[in-house]
Design a protein that fits this description.
Rossmann fold, single chain, two-stranded antiparallel ribbon, Dehydroquinate synthase-like, alpha domain, alpha/beta, binds glycine
């Protein structure tokens, strides 16, 4: 098992990465259970695949579960979903000193974390992420939120979990497309700050996606360790360090918006193509050699993630995509900070990017 500490002053916690953690949850999370009933929020798919193992482990410790099952999909991350969950927790008399367990992907973790942030001004929660994306990104670092008609993740709080159990066996049942989408966030850690990890992924990415146990554990643990370091340095994204985690997200978000935040382009797929565009835009500005940008594109294309704009079949121009960026929540006093590259393994926050220039670049990219 890999154990990665998230060293936050006053509320440090661990991310444990191994196969079989769900079936051993009662022992793993013993310190966070103090009543004979445990509240579990789970998306229906996660409960279907992992509910019995979770239930059996708690039962062996004499504990019973109360389940709140969420309909899979972003729809649960809404005001209605939040109200339902908070009322359910209140009806169960969950107290500040209790811990709620979140079993599922990013939607389940984000919604449960936010409900726990506001329940009685804050109760504890344990994350049990069951997708690759949630294991390497959303379950770690305490960003919690719901979506509103004005946009995604616009209402939320920083609220850290007390423990994260990343059970690699949960990925056995994850559809390959979602596995690849999560892999985009894995390779992101290499591109933004760890050239050696990027090189390792070039040789081992296929094994990671095939769920080779050793390769998968190394990839998840290395990603989580990178995120833990960044979160410990800049928990609330105020110094610029945590902003590095947004590499590929500004381009990616514009593409997700243009495709209606639909199955046409999953978040991780948007991030993957967004990183290619960030690398190519960095090359256009003379920050990195074009060959380095193409190394990024190749690494992403090699695992079947989108690496070129024309392949998306969009019916729009660069100005329209740049316009989506104007509504990005990272807008700061009228300018949009952009994550660019000084090298593969060295991202930085640029504050001098003109959206008109980005639009011209995107026009070139759309032509292929
Ligand atoms: N997913 C980006 C962050 O946690 O900051």
């Amino acid at each position: 098992m890999a154990v990665i500490p998230v060293a936050l002053a006053g509320r440090p916690y661990e991310v444990r990465v191994a196969r079989g953690l769900i079936g051993n949850v009662a022992q793993e999370a013993q310190a966070f259970v103090r009543k004979d009933r445990v509240a579990v929020v789970a998306d229906a798919n996660a409960r279907h695949f992992h509910g019995a193992a979770l239930e059996a482990s708690f039962a062996s410790a004499g504990l019973a579960l109360d389940w709140l099952e969420l309909v899979p999909g972003e729809g649960a991350k809404s005001w209605d979903g939040l109200r339902l969950l908070v009322d359910w927790l209140l009806a169960r008399e969950v107290e500040r000193g209790d811990h709620v367990f979140a079993l599922g992907g990013g939607v389940t973790g984000d919604l449960t974390g936010f409900a726990c942030a506001i329940l009685k001004r804050g109760c504890g929660f344990v994350q049990i992420p069951t997708t690759l994306l949630a294991q390497v990104d959303s379950s770690v670092g305490g960003k919690t939120a719901i979506n509103t008609p004005a946009g995604k993740n616009l209402v939320g709080a920083f609220h850290q979990p007390s423990l994260v159990l990343a059970d690699l066996a949960a990925l056995d049942t994850l559809p390959d497309r979602e596995m690849r989408a999560g892999y985009a966030e894995v390779i992101k850690y290499g591109i933004l700050g760890d050239a050696a990890f990027f090189d390792w992924l070039a040789d081992n990415g296929a094994a990671v996606l095939a769920r080779d146990p050793a390769a998968l554990e190394h990839a998840v643990a290395t990603s989580v360790a990178a995120k833990a370091r960044i979160v410990a340095e800049d928990e609330r994204e105020t110094t610029g360090a945590r902003a590095l985690l947004n590499l590929g997200h500004t381009f990616g978000h514009a593409l997700e918006a243009e495709t209606g935040f639909s199955d046409r382009l999953l978040h991780g797929e948007g991030v993957a193509l967004g990183m290619v565009l960030a690398a190519r835009y960095s090359a256009r500005r003379g920050l990195i050699p074009a060959a380095d940008a193409e190394r990024v594109a190749l690494a992403i294309a090699a695992v079947g993630l989108p690496a070129s704009l024309p392949a998306l079949g969009l019916d729009c121009d660069g100005a329209r995509l740049a316009d989506h960026m104007r509504h990005d929540k990272k807008m700061d006093a009228g300018t949009l900070p952009f994550l660019l590259l000084r090298g593969v393994g060295e991202a930085f926050l640029a504050r001098d990017v003109e959206l008109a220039d980005v639009a011209a670049f995107l026009d070139e990219q759309l032509k292929g």
